[in-house]
Specification:
By secondary structure, the chain is mainly alpha-helical. It has 14 helices and no strands.
Length: 315
């Protein structure tokens, strides 16, 4: 999918320690420095800092799956399960871009979808299990949850009477891009979202859904007999080892790139004064990974420079 330089000689221990520090700092600032202009948006800072902490948790899971030290042959194949987790990071990035396109409108909508999805769940339970005494408590709990959400969200009569019709579902990645495009058809943001969807999302989805392309990418490592029959045992083992390490590095650098993009989007919107640290990582990553370079040059290089200039001009 892209290449990674092997000539950088990066100290991954130092890199990961500093990088995790940046992620943690972002989560802490979201929790403690929520901007006053958004104080009236209910649950705003809770939504953002909890999402960021879940991002950090996903990162930790990916790093465990991809680690090659300490050596453990039982863990090694588990890297092939990492793609769905990387896809979570991709969707988080697109969701943040979507949020920040119109945060005062999008965040309340996001919270309201919790009500409509609970209503859908209740409708399903009543339809298929309403006569089953074993489901009574579950259905009662859903009704209580809906009542509490009605009060919390101060919903209008039409929204309470027909939430499934009146409150749209939270959009998919593709629908987010369409909504942003409709609002700002010539925005560079739309171009970037479309670009990364076309490149990354297709590959990650193929892996997650085991489409034929995804099956070939991942299943090859379990088809040793067939590959040995075609290439010979020694050459087959050589090629499989090389391909496995390339896949592992692809997962790692896709993860790093998406995470740095996530904290960049947060910094661009909130200006937590983390831009110097973020810029330093982009400069390292762009030299090391083609993917990072593409992300940096297409979006973050210019936007971070604009943020730096704006910050300097402030009294």
């Amino acid at each position: 999918m892209y290449t990674v330089s092997e000539e950088m000689g990066l100290d991954f221990n130092d890199l990961q320690r500093d990088f995790k520090g940046l992620l943690e700092a972002t989560a802490n600032l979201l929790e403690r420095k929520w901007p006053p202009k958004y104080q009236d948006i209910d649950c705003g800072n809770v939504v953002f800092y909890t999402r960021m902490r879940l991002v950090i948790n996903t990162y930790a899971s990916i790093m465990w799956l991809t680690a090659d030290i300490p050596h453990d042959p039982r863990r090694k194949p588990l890297v092939l399960s990492a793609s769905p987790l990387v896809r979570v990071l991709f969707e988080e990035l697109v969701t943040l871009i979507f949020f920040f396109d119109d945060l005062p409108a999008r965040l309340p909508w996001y919270v309201e979808t919790g009500y409509s999805e609970t209503a859908r769940e209740l409708e399903h339970a009543k339809k298929h299990h309403g006569d089953d005494d074993g489901w009574t408590d579950y259905i009662t709990d859903l009704k209580v949850s809906l009542t509490n959400l009605e009060k919390k969200l101060n919903l209008r009569g039409s929204e309470k009477e027909g939430p499934i019709r009146k409150i749209d579902r939270w959009p998919s990645v593709g629908d987010m891009i369409k909504i942003v495009k409709k609002r700002s058809p010539d925005s560079p943001t739309v171009e970037f979202m479309s670009y990364i969807e076309s490149w990354l999302y297709r590959t990650l989805s193929n892996d997650a859904h085991l489409s034929f392309t995804g099956l070939v990418r991942l299943g090859t490592f379990y088809a040793e007999k067939e590959i040995e029959a075609e290439l010979g045992k020694d050459e087959a083992q050589k090629q499989l080892k090389k391909r496995f390490e390339a896949y592992r590095m692809e997962i790692l650098w896709t993860t790093f790139t998406l995470l740095l993009s996530i904290v960049s989007e947060i910094e661009l919107h909130f200006n937590f004064k983390l831009s110097d640290r973020i810029q330093r990582f982009w400069e390292i990553f762009a030299i090391t990974s083609d993917l990072s370079k593409q992300f940096y040059e297409r979006r973050y290089k210019s936007l971070l420079a604009e943020l730096a200039d704006a910050t300097k001009s402030q009294p």
